[in-house]
């Protein structure tokens, strides 16, 4: 199933409906970036603006495969941006609360200064591909839905030898030449292994509390180059800052995530 199909929205009635598809999960719980993309598609439809510019999600409950509803509400419709809020909910409970701004990315122009560059990476064929282990649950099932290849220096946690630096770099694309649109970039900000896996600290999945993604441009076809880093792990929480660069070397997305850390 393609990402576009797996995040499709039915907007014929309000609230809108969608389906959390099988296989986009981490140990049974739908990936946070995947849920964010479903909600953002509904919000963009309600805004009549094609793309997310900035979307923030607060995660309330895990999402499981099955039907969901999204009730986008226009906060303000401006000349260039429309701001929308919404709740993505299962039949039992709300899953995430969202607030975002939507626009036509192709209409944004202005001065440019970028004081950063894409992460240095070996070619994709020299980077180990992360594939799911459905029996163990790690790597998770959603790794079968994307082509994700980790920088060799950042992949040793898979064999129990973390680098000691809370840093994860890698290549990303969809299989079968599916294009990566701005909604796919929302997924990209949250589908890499947590940086804490390389931090020489207790290893477990880190539930997302809040995720904000900024979409800066429509990506060119080809591999995305991604970098996620953490500076502060304290008080039972951690932040994770993300950069996503397209095949032309242009920054196309940024993210910041607040997540719970494993108990010692």
Describe, in short, the structure shown:
The chain has 264 residues and is mainly β.
Q: Nearest-angstrom radius of gyration? A: 18 Å
Separation of the first and last Cα atoms: 38 Å
**Helix/strand structural class:** mainly beta
Might you state the CATH topology name? Porin
Strand proportion: 35-45%
Please explain how this structure is put together.
- With 264 residues, the protein is mainly β.
- It has a single domain (3-105, 121-260), classed as Acyl-CoA thioesterase, double hotdog domain (Porin), CATH 2.40.160.
- The protein has three helices and 16 strands.
- The protein has helices at 3-6, 32-47, 182-188, and strands at 9-10, 16-20, 25-26, 29-30, 51-59, 66-70, 73-77, 82-90, 94-103, 147-150, 167-173, 208-215, 224-229, 233-234, 237-245, 251-260.
- Strands 1, 2, 5, 6, 7, 8, 9, 10, 11, 12, 13, 14, 15 and 16 form a 14-stranded antiparallel beta sheet that branches.
- The protein is globular.
- It starts with a helix and ends with a strand.
- Residues 124-260 form the Acyl-CoA thioesterase-like C-terminal domain.
Supply the key terms:
two-stranded antiparallel ribbon; Porin; mainly beta; 14-stranded antiparallel beta sheet; single chain; 3 helices; 264 residues
């Amino acid at each position: 199933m393609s990402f576009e199909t797996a995040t499709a929205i039915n907007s014929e009635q309000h609230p809108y409906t969608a389906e959390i598809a099988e296989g986009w999960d981490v140990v049974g719980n739908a990936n946070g970036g995947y849920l964010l993309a479903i909600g953002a598609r509904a919000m963009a439809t309600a805004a009549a603006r094609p793309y997310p510019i900035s979307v923030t999600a607060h995660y309330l409950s895990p999402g499981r495969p099955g039907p969901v509803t999204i009730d986008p509400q226009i906060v303000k419709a401006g000349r260039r941006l429309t701001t929308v809020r919404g709740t993505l909910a299962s039949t039992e409970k709300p899953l995430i609360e969202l607030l975002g701004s939507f626009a036509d990315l192709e209409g944004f122009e202005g001065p440019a200064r970028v004081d950063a560059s894409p992460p240095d990476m070996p070619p994709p064929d020299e980077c180990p591909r992360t594939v799911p282990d459905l029996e163990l649950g790690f790597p998770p099932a959603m790794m079968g839905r994307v082509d994700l290849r980790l920088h060799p220096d950042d992949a040793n946690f898979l064999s129990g030898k973390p680098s000691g630096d809370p840093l994860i770099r890698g290549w990303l694309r969809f299989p079968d030449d599916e294009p990566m649109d701005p909604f796919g970039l929302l997924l990209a900000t949250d589908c890499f292994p947590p940086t804490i896996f390389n931090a020489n600290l207790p290893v477990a999945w880190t539930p997302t509390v809040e995720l904000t993604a900024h979409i800066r441009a429509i990506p060119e076809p080809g591999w995305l180059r991604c970098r996620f880093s953490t500076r502060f792990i304290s008080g039972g929480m951690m932040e994770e800052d993300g950069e996503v660069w397209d095949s032309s070397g242009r920054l196309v997305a940024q993210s910041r995530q607040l997540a719970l850390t494993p108990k010692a």
